[in-house]
Write a structure and sequence with these properties.
The protein is of the alpha+beta class. 18% of the residues lie in helices and 14% in strands. The chain is built from one helix and two strands.
Length: 74
């Protein structure tokens, strides 16, 4: 890991691998803008970024957070 401005530093973003709210069946997951806005800033500063989830499980975006009117989310 490491970017052009920070050759020995990287950022690890941990996203939820939880995709349902208990036994309700309601979908959940990571918040899109919580990830994209943070990523956008740190990537601009030259950090390399890795994404992980607990235990390496697949992750899903919370469908309620899908705001494609936000240019950074797009």
């Amino acid at each position: 890991m490491g970017g052009k401005n920070h050759p020995h530093q990287g950022v690890l973003i941990v996203v939820s691998s939880h995709s349902a709210l208990g036994k309700t069946g309601n979908k959940t997951g990571y918040g899109l803008s919580e990830v994209t806005h943070f990523y956008h800033i740190i990537a601009q500063h030259g950090f390399e970024v890795d994404f992980v989830s607990p235990r390496g499980a697949p992750s899903e975006m919370d469908p309620d957070s899908k705001d494609l009117d936000d240019s950074i989310n797009r």
